[in-house]
């Protein structure tokens, strides 16, 4: 479980499509002063651009240019996210899984990406930045509501506008947020990983079961 509050920005060192296990792995370097790996263990979960991934190895070597860690990427993850398009030098949002004593500053984020979305417009609004996004799967729009939450590349953001007919929603990034997440640098045509509010999914399924039960009683 994550909060959608990005802790640090890392840099992709390598995306290896054929590692020693025969799968895909991603290695990320951190700033020399980073403490992200201070309590790390193999098997821990770290969200990389909003995708919950398992740490397979790590090296906290701050004296050799900065700590680094490697995560494995499953085929299903490659199909549903944009991680497979990352190249060396790309910057990524990072967040460690929360602990029981962690303050929940954002919203409940699982790190299970639903789809990607394309930036179709960006516009300044004072010192804030508005991004308009069109999802690859339009059916996720039913979970996106005005003033609700959505996680974009792992960052918890508030929805400021939704247009179901045209198939887009907007979020606004304040100046503070722009400096701390990679999403603010996305240009028109770039993609982001999207995770909708999971509460909406549970409500939908429960309601479907309830309505089905009413039908059986007729």
TrEMBL record:
EC nos: 2.5.1.9
Lumazine-binding repeats, residue ranges: 1-107, 108-207
Annotated protein name in UniProt: Riboflavin synthase
The protein's enzyme class: transferase
Taxonomic source organism: Thermothielavioides terrestris (strain ATCC 38088 / NRRL 8126) (Thielavia terrestris)
One Pfam family in the UniProt entry: Lum_binding
Pathway: Cofactor biosynthesis; riboflavin biosynthesis; riboflavin from 2-hydroxy-3-oxobutyl phosphate and 5-amino-6-(D-ribitylamino)uracil: step 2/2
Domain Lumazine-binding: 1-107, 108-207
